[in-house]
Automatic annotation (TrEMBL), chain A:
A Pfam entry, by short name: ETF
Domain spans labelled Electron transfer flavoprotein alpha/beta-subunit N-terminal: 23-215
Subunit comment: Heterodimer of an alpha and a beta subunit.
Molecular function as annotated in GO: electron transfer activity
Cofactor(s) listed: AMP
Swiss-Prot/TrEMBL keywords: Electron transport, Transport
Gene Ontology BP annotations: carboxylic acid catabolic process
Organism: Gemmobacter lutimaris
Protein's name according to its UniProt entry: Electron transfer flavoprotein subunit beta
From TrEMBL, chain B:
UniProt-listed PROSITE patterns: ETF_ALPHA (PS00696)
Molecular function per GO: electron transfer activity; flavin adenine dinucleotide binding
Domain Electron transfer flavoprotein alpha/beta-subunit N-terminal: 3-181
Name the record gives this protein: Electron transfer flavoprotein subunit alpha
Domain of life: Bacteria
PANTHER family listed in its UniProt record: ELECTRON TRANSFER FLAVOPROTEIN ALPHA, ELECTRON TRANSFER FLAVOPROTEIN SUBUNIT ALPHA, MITOCHONDRIAL
Species: Gemmobacter lutimaris
Binding-site list for FAD: 201, 226-227, 240-244, 257-264, 278
Keywords noted in UniProt: Electron transport, FAD, Flavoprotein, Transport
One Pfam family per UniProt: ETF_alpha
Length: 253, 308
């Protein structure tokens, strides 16, 4: 079974985000970029499925700017077999919306015919949490979101999902889209020999137009602002003082 | 203009708090119809009809809509969406599973975690784990969005809407429910609790998390945890407060042994009063806390539990 994993190039999760002075968005020029952490978990899970003999080939796809090549090389170094870059923007500040990404991925899926798409549950830049669900909808497939456990068995998969009250287990028919949550696995680091080998793995370059998908955004950004700050309060010296403050000053207990 | 609001129903129970808060968020957008889906949801539909601001309850009784299964529920919502300008739901795990699917089937974008409805087309939502707030205008024919309920007060009761039974499309054979593992608890629910006591990595072990739970029980509070504590196995995943967990805004939030990573702050910084107990006086949590106590949690927390 072929497994397709979409990966997104996003601001590194350790970098402090700065809103641009003109309010048009977040400053991404000369900022360290990495693979979306949830997507790393998806790549790792695909590799584990291959190690178990369930997956036969892992294809990683990235949609965005040309620089997303680096993100794809990271996935190849972790253990993916080949990569497809779909260039859909030239400015690093252009975020392709989940709906357009899902449409391009649906076209890639039709060409590649994977049995499973493993995706991160959300990207840490736009925090939309939508692409996997949208892709599944466009394909008319089943979906299993927020996975913390995945078992593929024949023509179905059993997935444990992180939901509000605890965990939910569902069974989905293959082919399916699974979006992964934080606790599914711990992604491996790529070794130096594998980083070298990844440079020789195939990376195909396409454009959004090749798939006939219009990536014009549906949402217009009116403005981007810093969140309202919160001021530090006072330090108290003892538990007694804390309880007194909460009772008398704040009136919350 | 009319709004379709998909209610969260868990085991036949209406998630009243989340629905009531979403009603407040969309109050300016027109008539609101509440969709209650799933067999055995009769009581939930009746309760929904009593919420202020609901003009009609649509009750889809089908077995396929139980357990929030995405494929069937999305098919049901899509079948109804033609009569509405807005389709929305509280930003719960259940709705975040379903609404993007609905949006794609309608060929529109989805907006997740809306924190303010500016006008019929314009919405505010946090991006980058709450490090920026974006105002966006949608040009789509139907606006599909989820509402971050912590940003809104709950609508009251006293309504008397009619309940209309409906049926709709399903999604035969794509998926099936196996089981729910929901921890039974007498504590208040995390996202609607007045007081939340959370523990972080500093608590050190699953066994020591009992200290946090004892303090919470003394205060009648819900128990939360940082991502570090959940990842380390000290607390279950559904206790996680933060950008990728639950977003809470109680009257009092007590952070114990939590350093205050950005991702955690995004989940609790709108709390009215924040207390931080941490032995590291440099911990970033003190920069957002109204009251900070630099102390060893293993002595301070039991002392506080005793003295309350």
């Amino acid at each position: 079974m072929k497994v397709l994993v979409p990966v997104k190039r996003v601001i590194d999760y350790n970098v402090k985000v700065r809103v641009k002075a003109d309010g048009s968005g977040v400053d991404l020029a000369n900022v360290k970029m990495s693979m979306n952490p949830f997507d790393e978990i998806a790549v790792e899970e695909a590799i584990r499925l291959k190690e178990k003999g369930i997956a036969s080939e892992i294809v990683v796809v990235s949609i965005g700017v040309k620089q997303a090549q680096e993100t794809l090389r990271t996935a190849l170094a972790m253990g993916a077999d080949r990569a497809i870059l779909v260039e859909a923007a030239s400015d690093v500040h252009t975020d392709i919306e989940p709906l357009a990404v899902a449409k391009i991925l649906a076209a890639v899926v039709k060409a590649e015919e994977p049995g499973l798409v493993l995706a991160g549950k959300q990207a840490i830049d736009n925090d939309m949490n939508a692409t996997g669900q949208m892709l599944s909808a466009l394909l008319g497939w089943s979906q299993a979101t927020f996975a913390s456990e995945l078992a593929v068995d024949g023509d179905s998969a059993t997935v444990t999902r992180e939901v509000d009250g605890g965990l939910q287990t569902i069974k989905v028919k293959l082919p399916t889209v699974v979006t992964v949550d934080l606790r599914l696995n711990e992604p491996r680091y790529a070794s130096l020999p594998n980083i070298m080998k990844a440079k020789k793995k195939p990376l195909e370059e396409k454009t959004a137009a090749d798939y006939g998908v219009d990536v014009t955004p549906r949402l217009t950004v009116v403005k981007t602002t810093e969140p309202a700050g919160r001021k530090a309060g006072v330090k108290v010296g003892s538990v007694d003082e804390l309880i007194a403050k909460l009772k008398d000053e704040a009136g919350v207990i | 203009m009319a709004v379709l609001l998909l209610a969260d129903v868990n085991g036949g129970q209406l998630a009243t708090d989340s629905v009531a808060k979403t009603l407040t968020a969309v109050a300016g957008l027109g008539e609101v119809h509440l969709l209650v889906a799933g067999q055995g949801g009769d009581a939930a539909a009746t309760e929904a009809a009593g919420l202020a601001g609901v003009s009609k309850v649509l009750f889809a009784e089908g077995h396929d809509y139980c357990h929030g299964m995405a494929e069937a529920t999305a098919a049901l919502v899509v079948g109804l969406a033609g009569s509405y300008t807005h389709v929305c739901a509280p930003a719960t795990a259940a709705a975040k599973n379903v609404l993007p699917r609905v949006a794609a089937l309608l060929d529109v974008m989805v907006l997740s975690d809306v924190t303010a409805v500016v006008d019929a087309d314009t919405f505010e939502r946090p991006i980058y784990a709450g490090n920026a707030i974006q105002t966006v205008k949608s040009g789509d024919k139907v606006k599909v969005f989820t509402v971050r309920t912590a940003a809104f007060a709950a609508a009251g009761t006293g309504g008397s809407a009619a309940v209309e039974k409906i049926s709709g499309a399903t999604a035969e054979g794509l998926s099936s429910w196996v089981e729910d593992k929901v921890a039974a608890s007498d504590r208040p629910e995390l996202t609607s609790a007045k007081i939340v006591v959370s523990g972080g990595r500093g608590v050190g072990s699953e066994a020591d998390f009992a200290l946090i739970e004892k303090l919470a029980d003394k205060l009648g509070a819900a128990v939360g945890a940082s991502r570090a504590a959940v990842d380390s196995g000290y607390a279950p995943n559904d206790w996680q407060v933060g950008q990728t967990g639950k977003v809470v805004a109680p009257a009092l939030y007590v952070a114990v042994g939590i350093s205050g990573a950005i991702q955690h702050l995004a989940g609790m910084k709108d709390s009215k009063v924040i207390v931080a107990i941490n032995k590291d006086e440099e911990a970033p949590i003190f920069q957002v806390a109204d009251y900070g106590l630099v102390a060893d949690l293993f002595t301070a927390v039991p002392e506080m539990t005793d003295k309350l």
